[in-house]
């Protein structure tokens, strides 16, 4: 087992490992136990009662966090003509078509999200081996393959996150920064939780959310009560 720092051990000592905290308590404790000196990210992990190997139990979606993620996303848009101009006006960081496709095919992925107009997906689809593993491939299910590129850019810049259950049935996403008020973190958690619950596959049987954990980037995990699905922004 890797040796933990003194700051981590001190933080972990404040957490009752046997307790399941209400969401507001958990994010408050995450802020208090952050061992980093920088403004760390606050993350959530869910263990879901699904079998992601089965197509009818795949959980994937997007949600716009009411208070954003605290991170300014770099958005790339594959578009031409008027759509490209609309993307630039909306604040996209990189806009193009064949030029960007060639650059990415060579290995460049210095951006956080990608959007594409439907007419260019035939070309963009060839980048699957580069963008797929990094979860950067535009997808109509997440609203990133669209003719309304301006809205897609605004949504991403405004705090839109996407999530997808991994092969171990875990779901990870960001709900903000340590500098956020606990109320804002709890409200972001609530928004994401509501969408995850809405996406529960009908084929999923038994307990859907089996485990929930909140943690900062280098901080200890805090167990959240998985039975609390109506999140209040106070203890």
Automatic annotation (TrEMBL):
Which top-rank group of organisms is this from?
Answer: Bacteria
GO MF, one term, reads: structural constituent of ribosome
- PROSITE patterns, A to Z: RIBOSOMAL_L1
Q: Which UniProt keywords apply?
A: Repressor, Ribonucleoprotein, Ribosomal protein, RNA-binding, rRNA-binding, Translation regulation, tRNA-binding
Q: Does the keyword Ribonucleoprotein apply?
A: yes
- Similarity comment text for this entry: Belongs to the universal ribosomal protein uL1 family.
Q: What does this protein do?
A: Protein L1 is also a translational repressor protein, it controls the translation of the L11 operon by binding to its mRNA. Binds directly to 23S rRNA. The L1 stalk is quite mobile in the ribosome, and is involved in E site tRNA release.
Partners and quaternary state? Answer: Part of the 50S ribosomal subunit.
Mind telling me what this protein is named?
Large ribosomal subunit protein uL1
What is the organism field in this record?
A: Pseudarthrobacter sulfonivorans
């Amino acid at each position: 087992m890797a040796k933990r720092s003194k700051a981590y051990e001190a933080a972990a000592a404040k957490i009752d490992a046997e307790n399941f905290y209400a969401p507001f308590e958990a994010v408050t404790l995450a802020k208090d136990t952050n061992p980093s000196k920088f403004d760390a990210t606050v993350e959530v992990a869910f263990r879901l009662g699904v079998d992601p190997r089965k197509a009818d139990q795949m959980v994937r979606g997007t949600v716009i966090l009411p208070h954003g993620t605290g991170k300014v996303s770099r958005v790339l848009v594959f578009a031409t003509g008027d759509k490209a101009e609309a993307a630039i006006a909306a604040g996209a960081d990189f806009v193009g078509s064949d030029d960007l496709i060639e650059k990415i095919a060579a290995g460049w992925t210095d951006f956080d999200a990608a959007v594409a107009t439907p007419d260019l997906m035939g070309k963009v689809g060839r980048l699957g081996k580069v963008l797929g593993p990094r979860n950067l491939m535009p997808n109509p299910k997440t609203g990133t393959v669209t003719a309304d590129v301006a809205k897609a850019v605004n949504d991403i810049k405004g705090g839109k996150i996407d999530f997808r259950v991994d092969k171990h049935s875990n779901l990870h996403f960001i709900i903000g920064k340590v500098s956020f008020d606990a109320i804002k973190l709890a409200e972001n958690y609530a928004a994401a939780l509501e969408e995850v619950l809405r996406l529960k596959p009908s084929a999923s049987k038994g307990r859907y959310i089996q485990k929930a954990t909140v943690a900062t980037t280098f901080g200890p995990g805090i167990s959240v009560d998985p039975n609390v699905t109506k999140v209040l922004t106070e203890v």
